[in-house]
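ok so I'm stuck.
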Amino acid sequence: MFNLVTGKKKEFNTIIARSGAGKTALAFLLVKRYFMPSLIIDSYGQFNGQSMTFNEFLELSTNADFLKDFYENKRAYVIKSSQKESNHVFSTLMNSKRFKKMLIFVDEIDMYIGKDRINNSHPFYEFVNRGRHKEFYLITTSRNTANIPKQLIAQTDNFYFSDLIENGALKFVDETFKSMNIIGLIKELEQYQFLKVLVNDKKVQKFHTKMEFLDLFSGQKQIKNKGVTKG
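replied:
not stuck anymore, here's the structure
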C-alpha cells in the first residue's frame, strides 16, 4: 500500500524535477500530509495565504500564546524570504531554543542558499547535519541536480523524481542509486507522476500527484492547516 508519508520521524525529503513538473505542488501535499507545525520558506511567490517575513514570525514567536498555538494546532505559515536572508533563517532555526519539532519546506533550495552552497559556509549545512537533533523535518525542491548540496543528498531519507530528461540528471540518479536500476522507471513517468525512492528501505513507489490531491481534498481527509494555498 502506498503512503505519501511513512510515519517515520525527522524525515528529510528531496524533490527533483524540471520546472512545471509539479514539484512545488508535491511539496505542498507533503506539508499537508505531515500535518505538523511548519514554515514554508517562499522566496519566489509560489504560495498565497497566511504569510509574513521571518523577522515578523520571530517577533510573534516571543509571545507565549502565539508559540503555543503554532505548536499545538500545527499551524503552517508562509515565510516570504529572499536569498540574502537565508543565512539568518537557518542560523536562527538552529540556535534558538524556541524552535524544534517542526517542518521546514524550502522551494528551490539551491537558489535560495545561493553561491554559499559551493564552499559549504551556509548555516543550512549545519541544519542538514544536526537538524534531526532538534527533531526538524525537511522538504526541499530543486530542478538542477548539479546544484544540490552533497550534504543534503547524503542526509535525504526520501527522494522524489519526475520529468528528468537531461543527461546530467539521469547520470546523477544512476550514480546515486547504482544498485536500484531506476533510470528506466523515471523515463516511463507520465506528467505529474513521481517516483519515490525510500533510501534506507531501498524501495521505490510510483504515484500520481493528481490522485493524491483528490484524496486530500475529497472531504474524507480534510486537514485544517491555517490559510495555506498553492499559488
